Amino acid sequence: MGSWVEAEFSTVQLEDVRRGTRLRRVAEAMWKNPGACQREAAGDWGAAMGSYRLWNQPKVTDQAILGAHQDQVWQRS
Questions:
Q1: CA–CA dist 39, 46 (Å, integer)
Q2: How far is CA 31 from each of CA 26, 36, 77, rounded to the nearest angstrom?
Q3: Is residue 8 over pLDDT 60?
């Protein structure tokens, strides 16, 4: 990946490393395809299903994702 996504979500805590990796992949795909629905941005059915599974995990909350973003805003300021 190596983009801003890596840095922006570097501190995300989702209890499983694979969830953080998936989050970064989903965010990167959405960034590269603004305006696309999640399935279109994913590129293929498997990646789309992976992103849907990610959002259905109880540990993947808006607060967990926003917390990582807030960490980076704090570092930048």
A1: 10
A2: 9, 10, 23
A3: yes
Q: Which two tokens stand for residue 73?
A: 């805003």
DSSP secondary structure code for residue 61 in this structure: -
How far is C-alpha 32 from the geometric centre of its chain's CA atoms? 13
| pLDDT higher than threshold 70 for residue 59 | yes
Tokens of 11: 């501190």
Half-sphere exposure of 53 (CA within 13 A, CB side): 10
What are the tokens at 29? Answer: 């795909």
What's the confidence (pLDDT) of residue 2?
Answer: 59
What is the enclosing helix (H) or strand (E) of 57?
none
